[in-house]
Design brief:
two-stranded antiparallel ribbon; alpha+beta; Alpha-Beta Plaits; 8 strands; 10 helices
Length: 374
């Protein structure tokens, strides 16, 4: 026997769009690296950096295509609003919608990896190319002068087959080292992998403060409160690479959470305005010490509603200035619209204070919302 269940599509869409927004901003780091490559091109031959630029642009294009696709799918999900369907169909229905959420989360993880490990590897290769330029050109000149073939077909084929552009560059640098003249491709590759790893580790140590400062700047630009920023920046890990990876992961989670909260606030604002309330943007305040946003709305007749939207999936509302139980005429339709139109599912309510006997009645409740659970 089947029963009716509720799927909140708009809430799923809010989460996906928020993840994509944060990922898109992080992709700007590729543009910064490409600019540095262009700046150093005068000191290097064009073909020495061409492979790096192709790989980075391809990576960037791939991630942007994923972002565009997830946004497109999440917008399609949002148009479904909130629906009730038979439970016998819910598994297949949710499989498709949750797949978009999982794709968005995978995109976030992929972007985090790009902004830590992968960029470090390319930065290491760029430094390696600059440091080895003179030695490489000297060997090339000696090879040309003696008529020696610079690279065997077998070695060239194996080198071109490497998908990792950073590793490919390091293998080439090691090939140019006279000390490796008698070594096989596999032996040179092993040396290159070791040096690339060591170089990336050193990059994290040298650039740690700069990278962490950049992450901190991202959080401040998103107006995260100082307590949250301090918690993100706190780590017990001693290894520089692991520190940065941990901070990047926590920062991304907070940035996504803040984006979700802002969208939730927008939904609450649209919903309350549809009930005849006026929201003055000056009456929307971020209270950093409490990590919440406060919004005050008012009717021309004097009725007033206050909302406090928090990061942990809750908001508190308060209606006052009503006679008797008249506030219910606004509260109930407001809460119903949150579900029916915007897909914000109320999972728990707690009456904090009310006094129905007074002419000026206040209704003050805490609402815990459920945004995309199955």
């Amino acid at each position: 026997m089947s029963h009716q269940v509720v799927i909140n599509y708009e809430a799923i869409s809010i989460e996906c769009r928020s993840i994509c927004e944060v990922a898109a901003k992080q992709l700007c780091q590729i543009d910064e690296l490409l600019s540095r490559i262009d700046e150093t091109s005068q000191s290097l031959q064009g073909d020495e950096t061409a492979g790096m630029k192709r790989a980075l642009k391809k990576r960037q294009a791939s991630l942007r295509a994923k972002i565009d696709e997830i946004v497109k799918q999440s917008d399609a999900i949002a148009t479904k609003g909130k629906v009730r369907i038979n439970s016998e169909f819910v598994r297949g229905e949710l499989t498709n919608e949750r797949a978009v959420v999982l794709a968005a989360q995978a995109l976030s993880n992929e972007t985090n990896k790009l902004t830590t490990d992968e960029i470090a590897r390319y930065e290491t290769l760029l430094n390696g190319l600059l440091q080895n330029k003179i030695a490489a050109h000297s060997r090339d000149m000696r090879l040309r002068a003696s008529g020696t073939i610079a690279m065997s077909e077998d070695f060239a084929a194996k080198l071109n087959a490497l998908a990792d552009e950073a590793l490919k560059g390091f293998v080439y640098l090691e090939y140019l080292d006279n000390r490796n003249a008698a070594r096989t491709f596999e032996e040179i590759k092993a040396i290159a992998e070791s040096k690339l790893q060591a170089g990336a580790d050193n990059y994290f140590k040298v650039e740690r403060k700069k990278i962490v400062a950049g992450i901190e700047a991202e959080m401040r630009a998103a107006k995260l409160d100082e307590g949250t920023i301090a918690a993100v920046m706190t780590t017990e890990t001693s290894d520089a690479r692991d520190q940065i990876a941990e901070i990047r992961k926590k920062a991304t989670e907070e940035l996504i959470g803040e984006a979700v909260r802002k969208k939730t606030l927008k939904v609450v604002m649209e919903c309350i305005e549809s009930k005849g309330f006026i929201v003055d943007r000056k009456n929307i305040k971020l209270q950093k010490e409490k990590n919440e946003v406060v919004m005050i709305a008012q009717k021309a007749s004097g009725e007033r509603a206050e909302f406090r939207v928090m990061l942990d999936g809750k908001f508190i509302y308060r209606f006052d200035g009503y006679e008797g139980q008249a506030c219910q005429n606004d509260i109930q339709p407001f809460m119903q619209d949150l579900e029916d139109i915007y897909g914000i599912k109320v999972t728990a309510t707690q009456e904090i204070w009310s006094n129905p006997d007074k002419i000026s009645t206040q209704k003050y409740q805490q609402i815990k919302t459920k945004t995309n659970k199955e």
